[in-house]
Structure formats: structure tokens, C-alpha cells
Design brief:
Shape of chain A: globular
Radius of gyration of chain B: 25 Å
Order of helices and strands of chain A: HHHHHHHHH
Mean pLDDT of chain B: 81
Largest interface: A-B, 65 and 59 residues
Radius of gyration of chain A: 19 Å
Helix content of chain A: 55-70%
Structural class of chain A: mainly alpha
Structural class of chain B: mainly alpha
Low-confidence stretches of chain B: 98-105
Helix content of chain B: 55-70%
Strand order of the largest sheet of chain B: 1-2
Number of helices of chain B: 13
Strand content of chain A: under 5%
Number of domains of chain A: 2
Mean pLDDT of chain A: 87
Largest sheet of chain B: 2 strands, antiparallel
Oligomer: heterodimer
Number of strands of chain B: 2
Chain lengths: 188, 265
């Protein structure tokens, strides 16, 4: 058994310890490395890993979904998002996070799940755009100045950049709005 | 419409003038499709930008309720225990343990000596490091202030009302360092007002910026009831900026290195 199997998510959703351990063996070292090199401790990595597992299994049990990337990469992205969420959280958690059994704030866990769903929707649609649009929008959403984008893409003026961003963003918005998941997620 | 696009972008980047922002917020209250456009743009900046900031806030949304129900279920409780057990099992496997049993005494002795040597080296290194790394408390406090903890109310979702509009205006005054105007604009609000927690946060930080430290600390005492973590955070920062390290450390973890961030205690 390996996390590289196409049906691993379905196997994992059964919640058997031996399957969960496979994931620990194959992915935990990567998550640990990421978190400890981004202001976290071993206990944070354990906490995030457990929360990600819980999140994915609960989501799958509620409504089975498929993953386009490898499960390993997908799981790592969920962990990374949870850690970024933790780092930015206005709840100002300390390093000594609660263990999974003591997590009482179901609101926060539910929010993390819908935010992950929104993350997946937006990234999936962004990937459908042309390379040029994708690259420009990635810089735009990172609030890179128009002047820098102009130089990087060798446009003639900031106005041309603005027009291009407007068109690309319009396309992205159309794609997002067309997806049934958008209405489900927009008011959360 | 490109004009709206520019307007929303300026709003999200905080570059609207005072009047433009008032008009903008008022339009948000009346124009549903404009509100949806702003909301989506805000979400795209958050999700696709550099910083992933959680801003879901609709506790009663059907989807959130459904997840909460699942998380509270007996089935999920069993799953949590299984995950927790797997975590313990993983940690106990030999290759993941820091202390492995050894059978031979000589090996134990050698290991013990090596460990003592390692501890001594680490100890000396730490002493050397700290003697060379003076923590710039002012810089780390400034970094912590810039996180604007608790001042994110304009980006939260939910129905807008007059208090939210006042708060948004007050925040703009605060960002423009018009501190007297922040206090004046929020004067009418009392404990029974909606969003009172947000009002207390911005009042407290503004009083501090005005040099009224004792009023700021008293306001933070009031805030404790509504948002204890935010109250502790700012109390810690205020004491730290006033070089009251003992007091500050009651509320926050003060870094021992310049490249670390302040954490809540």
C-alpha cells in the first residue's frame, strides 16, 4: 500500500490506523521540514498533519471528491495552507497547539475546510487561463506594482498592463462563477 | 466595468480618499451585485495572493453547519482517536525516536559522553550566539504592531450596518494617523453597540498612539471580556515598547533572537 495509489483517498477515508501510518511514513518528513523551516516546531507539524488528515477524511466522507495531482502533493498543499492559516490567524495561537482530541473549535475547523475548497476552486480555474494571463494575475494578486509587471512582460505602458489584467481577471471571474461550487462557497 | 474594477482595487489596497471610501461603503450596502464583485475580488486577493488569511465568518452557512455537525459526530470522534494513535505509533517507531535502547554498556557510555560533549558545545554556542545577537525589541515590536491584529474587521464578510461603516471610517483615520478623529468618530458607541469588541480594539490602540498609555491599558482591560487574546497581545506590545520586559512577558513570548516573531503567551 502506498499513498501513490489512485484510490488512496478512498482507502484513507475508512480511517484505519495502518493506512494513516502509511501516510505518516511517506509524507510527514516533508511536512515536518516545511513547518520547522517556516517558524514552526515539531509539535506544530504534528498538529497540522493531524488536522489535515481529519479535514480531508471528513470532507471525503461528506462528499467524495477526486484529486488531479498526486495525493502526496495534494496532502502537502493542505498542510501548507493550514500552516499559513495558523501563522496568519488572528487567534494568535502559541506554539503549544491543542492536540487533535482536544480541538473544541469546530467552527474554525469547518472554516478551514471551506477555505481549502475555495482555494482549490480558484487555483483550478486559474490553471485554465493562458500562461500569460496566469503569470500576470499571479503577480497582480501578490500586489506587485504595475510598473514592475510592465517591465517584466515588456509592455509599453502601465495602462496596457491594466487592460491586460482587466481582461484576464474577467475571464477568471467568469470561470469561477460558472462553477457550481462558487454559489456554494461565496457567502461563507 | 473597468471603472468599478479600478475602484475596488484601490479600496482593497487602501488608497481611496476619505470621501471615496464613505461613498464606496455606502454603495456596498445598496448595490448587491457590486457587493458580490467586491467580495469575490477580495477572496481572489486573499487566496491567490502571497498571504493566505482566513476570513470565513459565516457561522450559520449551510455548508459550515454541515461540516460542524460531522466534526461533532461520534464517527469523527473515533477518527480523531485513530489519527492521534497513529501519531503516537509513528513517533514510537525506532527510526523516529531520539532515544533508542542500546544493549551494550560500552556503547551507552560512549553515547553518553558524546551527548554530554554535544550539550556542552550547544551551550557554548548559545552563549556565543546571544553575546553576538542583541535583540532589537523596537524592531520586533514594530513588526508585531504592523500585523494589525484585530483590525481586520473591514475585510470580514457579513451584513454591513452603520457601525461597520463607522468602524471602516475609523480604521481609515487610524491608518492615516488621524488619531483624534478615530476617537471622535467612535465616541457615541457604548457596551450595547454591535461590534463593540472591534470598537474597543481600535480605541485602545489609538489611545496608545496618542500617548495615553494608561487609558489604552484600561481599554484593553475592558476588551478582555470580549477578546482576551487580542487584549493580551496589545498589553504585551505596549509594555515591550515601554521597556517593561517583565510586564510584557506576562502576556507575550519575547523573542530571544532578532529573526524571531513575538508570540502570545
Amino acid at each position: 500500500m502506498t499513498s501513490k495509489q489512485s484510490n488512496f483517498l478512498s482507502i484513507l477515508s475508512k480511517g484505519k490506523e495502518e493506512d494513516i501510518l502509511v501516510l505518516y511514513e511517506e509524507v510527514f518528513p516533508k511536512v515536518l521540514h516545511f513547518i520547522t523551516t517556516n517558524n514552526g516546531h515539531i509539535s506544530d507539524a504534528e498538529d497540522v498533519f493531524q488536522k489535515a488528515l481529519l479535514q480531508i477524511i471528513v470532507r471525503y466522507r461528506k462528499e467524495p471528491f477526486t484529486i488531479k495531482a498526486s495525493f502526496e502533493n495534494y496532502f502537502f498543499t493542505v498542510c501548507r495552507n493550514l500552516w499559513r492559516r495558523e501563522l496568519n490567524s488572528s487567534k494568535l495561537k502559541t506554539h503549544h497547539l491543542e492536540t487533535i482530541e482536544n480541538i473544541s473549535n469546530h467552527d474554525d475547523s469547518a472554516f478551514a475546510m471551506v477555505e481549502q475548497e475555495r482555494y482549490e476552486l480558484f487555483h483550478e480555474k486559474l490553471a485554465l487561463l493562458s500562461e500569460n494571463c496566469k503569470n500576470i494575475l499571479e503577480l497582480f494578486f501578490k500586489k506587485i506594482p504595475y510598473s514592475t509587471i510592465m517591465q517584466k512582460f515588456q509592455y509599453n505602458s502601465e495602462n496596457v498592463v491594466r487592460q491586460r489584467i482587466f481582461k484576464c481577471k474577467k475571464r477568471l471571474v467568469e470561470l469561477i462563477k460558472k462553477d457550481a461550487r462558487y454559489n456554494d462557497l461565496k457567502d461563507i | 466595468m473597468m471603472e468599478d474594477d479600478i475602484l475596488i482595487e484601490r479600496y482593497l489596497k487602501g488608497t481611496l480618499s476619505e470621501q471615496e471610501e464613505i461613498d464606496f461603503l455606502s454603495r456596498l450596502n445598496t448595490d448587491t451585485s457590486f457587493k458580490e464583485q467586491v467580495q469575490l475580488e477580495q477572496q481572489m486577493f486573499t487566496v491567490l495572493g502571497d498571504t493566505y488569511w482566513s476570513f470565513a465568518s459565516n457561522h450559520t452557512h449551510e455548508k459550515v453547519e454541515a461540516y460542524k455537525k460531522m466534526l461533532e459526530s461520534e464517527e469523527t470522534s473515533t477518527l480523531k482517536s485513530t489519527i492521534s494513535n497513529a501519531n503516537e505509533t509513528y513517533k514510537k517507531t525506532p527510526q523516529n525516536q531520539s532515544n533508542q535502547p542500546e544493549s551494550k554498556r560500552s556503547i551507552l557510555h560512549t553515547k553518553l559522553i558524546l551527548r554530554i560533549a554535544a550539550v556542552l558545545i550547544i551551550f557554548i554556542s548559545i552563549l556565543w550566539f546571544y553575546s553576538n545577537d542583541k535583540v532589537d525589541y523596537k524592531a520586533i515590536a514594530t513588526k508585531a504592531w504592523n500585523k494589525n491584529i484585530g483590525l481586520d474587521f473591514t475585510v470580514r464578510n457579513g451584513t454591513s450596518n452603520s457601525t461597520k461603516v463607522s468602524l471602516a471610517n475609523a480604521l481609515q483615520f487610524y491608518n492615516n494617523k488621524k488619531y483624534e478623529q478615530v476617537i471622535a468618530s467612535l465616541k457615541k458607541y457604548t457596551t450595547t453597540s454591535s461590534h463593540y469588541k472591534d470598537i474597543l480594539v481600535i480605541r485602545a490602540v489609538t489611545h496608545y498612539k496618542l500617548g495615553k498609555t494608561s487609558i489604552a491599558l484600561k481599554t484593553l482591560d475592558s476588551l478582555k471580556t470580549y477578546a482576551p487574546d487580542i487584549a493580551k497581545w496589545y498589553k504585551g506590545l505596549i509594555h515591550l515598547e515601554n521597556n517593561e520586559l517583565d510586564k510584557a512577558s506576562q502576556y507575550i513570548q519575547i523573542p530571544t533572537k532578532s529573526n524571531q516573531d513575538i508570540k502570545l503567551k
